[in-house]
Write a structure and sequence with these properties.
The structure holds three protein chains of three kinds. By secondary structure, chain A is mainly alpha-helical. In chain A, 49% of the residues lie in helices and 4% in strands. In chain A, the strands form two sheets. In chain A, strands 1-2 form a two-stranded antiparallel sheet. In chain A, helix 1 runs antiparallel to helix 2. The longest helix of chain A is centred in the middle third of the chain and has 26 residues. In chain C, helix 2 packs antiparallel against helix 3 and helix 10 packs antiparallel against helix 11. The chains are: A mainly alpha, B mainly alpha, C mainly alpha.
């Protein structure tokens, strides 16, 4: 904004407020138009970048460009630059708490696990890697009866494009999968194939279950095959 | 807030109306305030607090978006391809332009230029209507293709009667599982945004009326300023909605199915 | 504060006699319904919140009555679910969240600032009517089958159960906007309407507490709004966001819900703590020890309360990693509360304490808040929470902080400011007896519940094993004692309105700024614009005239 004009009351005969100013900064046509052109440029940029395949970076770039546009709008159109600093603080506070909301919710969602109640091992849904917080139960448990247990585990093992099974949601997912024979196994949280679990590291036991996972949308019988290895 | 001394602004287009006074307060200065500056600052802080809550209001939806896009990336990409990027981009530019005219409306009002303020507000309202009209056509296309939220996904429907369209084909069956999650979020988020646009139009019309009545001057333009702040927020939300819905991992039509 | 009589702008002209109280300046029901006076709005809120308090309290009495014996006592299980849900929803959304800020806060805040009104009086009235509209939806839900989900509305039960869920949720959604707008109003008022000389470092701690509460109201409540909106859409349109059949996540609902509801519990406790500051200062005639520590801890509580929500979800199936993070953060949030208790205790050390009825409530607060706060730590630790979650231990914990602390502080504040609000005194001797009845009744209800919970009695259960019967009966009898105390307290206030002695300007000899105004105050609160020259607890600087009863 090159042109700073101030609102000023010319009518000094209007009582004690004649000389009062509202302290507002008046922007210039050129300044506002320049910001607008900047916004349009960023819009075209983001449209263009979207055509280039950067994989996961596409999302990051899009959000960064959107944030730059948002900053332009806030700083110039919304006058944050010239305002009381408290207004900016309000915006920063809101953004911070939104960030906390995102970070901690995604923290949960990304690390949702499958729990093997027999062994206490927890593995991540997506990769099968050992989850933070997991532990190896030193007391070995009895192998659960029937392959139904392990097939319920595999069918509950979510791949990326399927319903994430939380221990709460798992039963519902399995109901949807209509595996009546697995009904007794459902009350235990989806169990990773207990057979392989104990002597090997947890990640190991996850592997057979997860290699079965992509097949899970097919009948559970498919995934039962590799599990009891 | 910087406090630089004033130089008289001689660019008034028209003579400011003589304000009605109540005791020693002009009509627009409420009785519990001592000075116009105090009232103006208070209104701005209040509006920013309100905008803060609007941001938090939409944030929940963005978090839901983040969660479901993480889980169903492929479905989200497929859903995004079904949206009309051209219309989305035009809508973005329309809203950005309306933000410009809103800022210019505030500027004109700060300078006491009543007719310029009127023009700017009218253009802002026109842009808002344009946005809604384009949105209408976009939604209509989705309805006709059965790309609807949740359990309605897959059946092409007429938008106004909501009845299924017999014989129409929906691409839903060719789309990945869980694409309905994309459309659920699309309709809820853009729908809620559109509701905010409609509210914004209502408020602008009221401000326009007040402006034509001569309520505003270079000493009192607060309502125009806070309305513009609200309008910029509406624009801000769309600035984020646009890339998140329209620009996901775009694969040009000829290269799909690889 | 020397109420210097310089009156800079000649205020008071054109508004009638500044010596006429706000109660007499206009009469008739319409003058109340369209009032812009923060004091009248505060009273309308007070009447409304007390009405809902009594209603939800009766629901609680019914719950406790049902639990007097195992099996059916007075109602069937579905009704029981509806009764406790109603108790929770009405108590949380229609009573405790608005109570202190919107009733006492509305009345006292501008007066403590030396201001004539809040920043946005019309918005204030609108907030009240929005609250009433929300309440109407809740009542509508009540008479149309009510809700049996618990006040937390967890999915997928809430999206699939029958009952008037949408109406109830709409009520909470609308009432939330009342909360948001009140928060906006108070923040701006504290920033822009402080009297000359009232610097931030002289701000009464009550106002710091209300300020922190307002931040939470503004920034947290909208997340509740979007949560409830999504719940309504899920129920009405089956959009599938929380439905596992459609790839949705029910635990996500819990994240959304608790992201608001955890800061909400701080919206409930911070005003209670705010009142206790004032009570302790006045009834010991001392500065609160560590003024800066106390106000910083209020702001810290507001900030940290956003970081801990998923400690309500340790057994929901969220990731263990999230559990660990939230447990650690929850220990952090206990620290500012501890700072406050330390400072209050320090203020009381070797003080000359006037155990007037308001102070009794403040002292009970200290005792009960310690219990409530410390038992929260058991729940913050995952190892113990796994056993205590969804048991009566949790019920006892939150009732100790919400009722034992906040409601006691609310009662204390009500007693404290009653002479200012009404211009009448209540019977102090009876008030003290009533306090003891309430104190004994309250602790009889809830102390045994810690034991019940730690021995395994689950919450929200209609029936229970015989081994829990005795403690349930103790708790129920306690509820009757508490009810007697509560109703008698209300009766004592009604008697005061009808035939109470006229209150002096400053019956508690307080140095607080609000006591400079007459009891009851005129429309614009002060006869002359106050000018502040000392802190609110500077008893050594206050003149005899200011502290005198007058």
């Amino acid at each position: 904004m090159t042109d700073h004009e101030h609102t000023h009351d010319e009518h000094s005969d209007d009582g004690p407020y004649g000389a009062d100013e509202v302290h507002a900064h008046v922007g210039s046509y050129r300044g506002y138009f320049a910001v607008f052109m900047g916004l349009i440029c960023f819009t075209l940029l983001t449209y263009g970048v979207a055509e280039i395949h950067l994989g996961r970076a596409n999302l990051a770039v899009a959000v960064v460009i959107a944030s730059l546009k948002a900053s332009l709008v806030c700083t110039f159109f919304m006058h944050l630059k010239d305002d009381n600093k408290f207004n900016t603080l309000i915006l920063i506070a809101a953004i911070t708490f939104i960030g906390v909301f995102f970070a901690l919710t995604l923290n949960d969602v990304d690390y949702r696990e499958q729990l093997d109640t027999q062994s206490g091992n927890r593995v991540l849904l997506q990769s099968g890697a050992e989850a933070p917080g997991s532990w190896v139960n030193p007391i070995k448990k009895e192998e659960p009866a029937g392959a139904g247990e392990s097939s319920s585990a595999a069918s509950a093992a979510p791949a990326a494009s399927t319903a994430p099974a939380t221990t709460a949601a798992a039963s519902a997912t399995e109901t949807a999968a209509a595996s009546a024979s697995e009904a007794p196994a459902m009350s235990a949280a989806p169990a990773i194939s207990a057979t392989a679990a104990h002597s090997a590291a947890p990640a190991h036991s996850a592997a057979p279950a997860h290699s079965a996972a992509p097949a899970h949308s097919a009948a559970p019988a498919h995934s039962a095959a590799p599990a009891p290895s | 807030m910087t406090d630089t001394t004033a130089t008289a602004d001689t660019e008034h287009e028209e003579h400011e109306g003589h304000e009605e006074h109540h005791g020693d307060h002009p009509k627009w200065l409420q009785h519990h305030w001592d000075t116009p500056a105090q009232q103006f600052d208070a209104a701005k802080i209040g509006m920013w607090a309100f905008l803060g809550q609007e941001l938090l209001f939409f944030s929940g939806l963005f978090v839901a978006y983040a969660v479901y896009r993480t889980w169903y990336g492929e479905a989200f990409a497929a859903g995004s391809h079904e949206l009309n990027r051209t219309m989305g981009t035009i809508n973005t530019c329309v809203l950005l332009f309306s933000s410009l005219t809103a800022a210019l409306a505030v500027r004109a009002s700060q300078l006491g230029k009543k007719s310029e303020t009127t023009v700017m507000i009218l253009v802002t309202i026109a842009c808002a209507f344009t946005f809604l009209v384009i949105k209408y056509f976009e939604y209509e296309a989705k309805f006709h293709h059965g790309l609807l939220p949740g359990s309605f996904f897959g059946t092409p429907r007429d938008m106004l009667t909501f009845q299924p369209i017999p014989g129409a084909h929906s691409p839903a069956s060719e789309l990945p599982d869980h694409t309905h999650a994309f459309f659920s979020l699309y309709f809820v988020m853009t729908g809620l945004h559109a509701i905010h646009v409609i509210i914004g139009i209502g408020v602008w019309i009221w401000i326009l009326r007040r402006n034509l009545r001569g309520d505003f001057s270079s000493r009192y333009f607060t309502p125009v300023d806070v309305t513009a702040l609200y309008w910029h927020l509406v624009d801000l939300i769309w600035i984020y909605l646009y890339p998140l819905f329209y620009l996901i991992d775009y694969v040009p039509p000829g290269h799909r199915g690889g | 504060m020397a109420a210097i009589t310089t009156d800079q702008k000649g205020h008071g002209g054109g508004h009638g006699d500044p010596n006429v109280s706000y109660l007499d300046v206009k009469k008739g029901i319409m003058s109340w319904l369209i009032t812009l006076d923060h004091k009248r709005i505060g009273i309308m809120y007070l009447v409304s919140v007390m009405t809902f308090f009594i209603f939800a309290g009766v629901m609680a009495l019914l719950v406790r009555l049902e639990l007097l014996t195992p099996g059916r006592t007075i109602m069937d299980p579905d009704t029981y679910n509806r009764v406790f849900t109603l108790h929770g929803v009405v108590m949380v959304f229609l009573f405790i969240i608005p109570a202190i800020p919107a009733s006492l806060g509305n009345f006292v805040l501008p007066m403590m600032l030396g201001a004539k009104d809040v920043a946005f009086p019309r918005l204030n009235l609108l907030s009240y009517y929005i609250y009433v509209l929300g309440a109407c939806f809740a009542v509508f839900s009540l008479v149309n089958g009510a809700v049996d989900t618990g006040w937390t509305f967890y999915t997928p039960y809430s999206t699939t159960t029958n009952g008037a869920v949408i109406a109830m949720v709409m009520g909470a959604f609308i009432a939330g906007f009342s909360s948001i707008l009140t928060g906006v109003n108070f923040i701006v008022t504290i920033h822009k309407l402080r009297a000359p000389g009232l610097t931030w470092s002289r701000l009464p701690l009550f106002l710091w507490g209300i300020y922190a509460t307002s931040i939470l109201q503004v920034l947290a409540t909208p997340v509740l709004a979007i949560t409830l909106l999504l719940l309504m859409l899920e129920r009405a349109l089956d959009i599938g966001i929380f439905d596992p059949h459609k790839g949705g996540d029910p635990v996500l609902f819990q994240h959304f819900f608790w992201f608001y509801s955890h800061p909400a519990v701080y919206i409930m406790i911070l005003p209670g703590m705010a009142i206790v500051n004032e009570l302790i200062a006045t009834f010991t005639h001392r500065k609160i020890m560590g003024y800066r520590a106390v106000f910083i801890s209020s702001l810290a509580l507001a900030l940290f309360s956003f970081l801990v929500w998923a400690h309500h979800m340790f057994v929901s199936g969220q990731s263990e990693y999230a559990n660990m993070v939230f447990s650690a953060l929850t220990f952090l949030v206990a620290i500012p509360s501890g700072v406050k208790v330390f400072n209050w205790t320090g203020t009381l050390y070797k003080a000359s304490v006037w155990t007037a009825s308001p102070m009794l409530y403040a002292l009970a607060f200290l005792f009960q808040f310690c219990i409530g706060g410390l038992t929260g730590l058991f729940l913050a630790m995952i190892a113990t929470d796994v056993h205590l979650h969804d048991t009566y231990f949790v019920v006892a914990h939150f009732h100790y902080v919400m009722v034992g602390s906040t409601v006691f502080a609310f009662f204390g504040g009500l007693h404290y400011w009653w002479p200012k609000i009404t211009g009448k005194l209540y019977d102090e001797k009876k008030a003290k007896i009533i306090f003891w009845i309430i104190f004994v009744g309250y602790n009889t209800v809830f102390l045994p519940q810690f034991v019940l919970g730690s021995r395994g009695m689950p919450r929200r259960y209609y029936d229970y094993l015989p081994q829990y019967e005795f403690l349930h009966q103790v708790s129920t009898v306690g509820s009757w004692i508490l009810a007697v105390g509560g109703f008698w307290m209300i009766w004592n206030f009604i008697v005061s309105l009808r035939s109470g002695k006229k209150a002096p300007r400053n019956p508690w000899n307080s140095a607080g700024y609000e006591w400079a105004a007459p009891s009851p105050p005129p429309l614009e609160n002060f006869v002359k614009q106050p000018i502040i020259t000392r802190g609110p607890y500077d008893y050594h600087l206050a003149t005899d005239a200011e502290i005198a009863e007058d």
